[in-house]
Design goal:
290 residues; alpha/beta; Rossmann fold; 5-stranded mixed β-sheet; 8 helices; 10 strands; 30% helix
């Protein structure tokens, strides 16, 4: 038997924080690829440390629903899962090595996968998010696209994931312009219209769930609204540009595909589940040479 465990941060204050995690778990569960699909959290129940005790399967694949490699994915989660000393095969992503361990207290083989945010398939989810907010499956011609991250001097990997996906999408040539912007470092999303010549700009925040940053900070910082409680238009007019603000990329249904991709890379038998999820969610397919 094999189980999938999706782990996320969660929140004591924002009830919507865990909603995408539950929804993606439901999508994967419907494919039948795993005997069990469960979720675990840092700030909600079941906790990272207890989640392995909630499954019966002897092979467990743990996928972190996090955007970048950093403190949680490299230290907290492996420690709480008791796999911090066992390193497995090299992962295709630079700087990441999936870990495999057998915590004695649960008698299971645990495959700890890389975070979803650094996987190549996340580029497809970003593009899908642009399609969703514009209502146009061919969106790109005449449009600019910005991928927005938090950015922080404390973790340089926070910016790397944003820039990586912006570069990949730019290379596809679908959008007229593609930029990586940040909340807490240059170039800043506050000045989004300064970086684009395109009249229409899609703004996709690379966050797992909608919360304080995506629903309050970013809309106000961009000038979409002077008070997030009043809401904003989509698209909104800012300095002569139409801003199509999508909200957190992690709420896009295609995220379930990235979860499956991560598990499959670590050795999980997912059958045709990846194809199934892409068909169910209208998944974006990259060019043949991507």
């Amino acid at each position: 038997m094999q189980a999938l465990v999706i782990v996320a941060h969660g929140s004591h204050l924002n009830p919507d924080s865990s909603t995408p995690t539950y929804r993606h778990a439901d999508t994967v569960r419907e494919t039948g690829a795993f005997d069990e699909v469960v979720t675990g959290f840092w700030k909600e129940e079941p906790h990272f440390r207890e989640v392995l005790r909630t499954v019966e399967s002897d092979e467990v694949y743990v996928v972190p629903l996090f955007i970048s490699e950093g403190y949680f994915t490299e230290e907290v989660i492996p420690r709480e899962l008791r796999v911090d000393d066992d390193v497995g095969l090299d992962d295709p992503d630079p700087g990441w090595e999936p870990r495999r361990g057998a915590p004695e207290d649960v008698d299971k083989s645990v495959h700890y996968c890389g975070p979803v945010g650094t996987h190549d398939a996340m580029s497809d989810v970003i593009v899908q998010r642009a399609e969703s907010v514009t209502g146009d499956t061919d969106v790109g011609d005449g449009f600019g696209l910005t991928v927005v991250g938090h950015g922080t001097e404390r973790n340089e990997n926070s910016a790397k994931a944003i820039e990586y996906h912006a570069d990949r999408i730019r290379e596809r040539g679908r959008f007229d312009e593609v930029k990586a912007l940040f909340m807490d470092e240059d170039p800043e999303v506050d000045d989004v219209t300064d970086f684009f010549e395109s009249d229409d700009v899609v703004v996709v925040p690379l966050f797992i769930a909608d919360g304080y940053h995506t629903q309050e900070d970013i809309p106000e910082d961009m000038g979409l609204t002077d008070d997030y409680r009043k809401g904003w238009e989509t698209p909104g007019e800012v300095d002569g540009h139409h801003i199509w603000y999508s909200g957190a990329v992690g709420t896009e249904d295609l995220m379930a595909d990235v979860v499956l991709e991560r598990a499959a890379e670590a050795g999980a038998d997912v059958g045709d589940a990846i194809e199934t999820v892409r068909e169910l969610t209208g998944g974006v397919r990259p060019p043949a040479d991507d």
